[in-house]
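INFO batch 0412 | record 1 of 1 | parsing
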Amino acid sequence: MAAQVPQDARLDIIVNGAGLSGIAAAITFALHGHRVTVLESAKELAEVGQSHSPRSIGKNLTCTQVGAGLQITPNASKILQYFQLPQSFWDAGAVPTVLSVHRYAGPVLARETDFDKNIMSKYDAPFIDFHRVDLQQALYQRAKELGVVFAMDQRVSKVDLDSSRPVVHTKSGSSFEGDLVAAADGLWSATRESFLGGTQDLPKPTGDLAYRIVLTLDQVADEPELREWIKNPEVHFWIGPGSHVVSYSLRGGTMLNIVLLVPDNLPPGVAKQEGSLEEMRELFKGWDPILNKFLTKVEKVDKWKLMHQAELPRWVNDKSTLVLIGDSAHPMLPYLAQGRDGLPALERVRCADHNLGANSSIEDGAVLGELLGAITSKAQLPQALHLYESLRKERGEAIVRETFKQRHDFHLPDGSEQEARDVIFKSQFEKQSAQGAFPSRWTCPEVQPWLYGYDAVQQVHEALQREPLKDS
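INFO prediction complete | emitting C-alpha cells
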C-alpha cells in the first residue's frame, strides 16, 4: 500500500476530466490520502456491457466508438499493475504475440515473433490491447474504492485563480474550491484557457485524419480467414504513400480495432464528419487484399481530423494552484500509441474521452500523484509541482516530436527515400532483434527502451533522492 501523507498535509484536489490522465492522477492522489473530486462533463461513463458491439451502441454512447482500441505499452501497464486493478480487467485484454509491418500492397517488411514474451523479458510488464471502456471502467471503479468523488454533468466554464485557493466554475452554476486544480480535460481544455489568462489556444490541424473501425467476429462470420485474424491477437501495420493503417485485436480476440490514417480532406473548421464508405475503400484500392476484405465488412465510419498544439513554456501557474496533465499539457498524435488525436469539442460534451491516448497520460497522473504523495506539509506543494514539470515536460515533448518522425517514416511516397527505408527493414528481417536506428519505433532498439522502459514510480523515487522536498 502506498504511504499516506500526514493528515495536516492532505490536499483538496479538483481534477477536471474523467479521461485516462484524470482518473490515473485521481487514483494516485487517493492512494496517498489526498481528498479528490473529479469533475466530468459527461452525464455518465459508458458501461462495459454497453459497448460489446458497434451495433449495440445507442445515441448516448457514441464515445465507445471513438478510439475504441488502446494499445497499453509497458510504461503504462506497469502503472496499472501498481494501481492493483482486478484480474478481470487483465483478462479483458488481448496480448499480441506478433508485431508486423507490411508494405501497403501486402509484403511483410518487418516481423517480430514472440513479441509478447520479448516485451515481458525486457520490461517486466505486458504490451496489452484493451477496449477503451474496459480500461476507463476499471480505473473508475478503483478510484471510487479509494474514496474519489465523481461529479458528473459538470462542464467547466472557467477557473478563478486570483485567490489563494482556486475556484472551478461549471456551466451548471456549481462551484468547487480546493488547494489544487489538475487540468485533465484534454486538447480542447477549458482549464488550459484559464491557465493562459483567458486566451483561446485552439488546436491546429496536422494534415492527417483518421477513420476508426471496430469489427466483431459476428461481422466476419462468413470469412474464416478474417475470423482467425481476429482470434489470434497480433499487431499489424501497413505503410504506404501518405497513409498508414494499424490493426489489433481486442477483448481476448473477439473484436478487431482498425485505424486508417490518411491525408486530411475535411473542410476548415470541421473536426468530425460522417465518412463515405466508397471514398474510404477507394483510398486503399491496391493495398493488401486482407485489409480490403476487412474494409468490405464496415457498415458505417466517421472521419476525425487529427489535431495538435504548440508546446507551452510551463505547465504550472505562478501560484502553484493549477497544473496541466495529459493532453491539456502535451497533446500527441496517436502514431506511437502514447497520445491522442484531437477529439472535437462537440464530442467531449457527450463522453468522458478527453484523453484518447493512454500511455503518456497515465504516466503524467502517476508521476504527479507520487510527488504529491511525498509531501509532508502543504508548503511543499510548489516544489512538488515544479519537480513534476521538470520530470514530465521534456519527456512529453520529446514523445510529441517522435510521433511526427514516425509519421514521416510510415508515410513516405514511393521513391528513393522509401527504397532506402525498406532496405533497412529487410536487412534486419531475419535477425532476432533490430540493430541501430530502425524505421518502426515500435521495435527500434534506440527508441523502444526509452519509451517502454520508463518507470514512473522509480523516476519519482530517484528525483526525490536528488532533490528532497522542503518547506518553501
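INFO post-check: Residues 48-66, 341-356 have pLDDT under 50 and may be disordered.
INFO record closed
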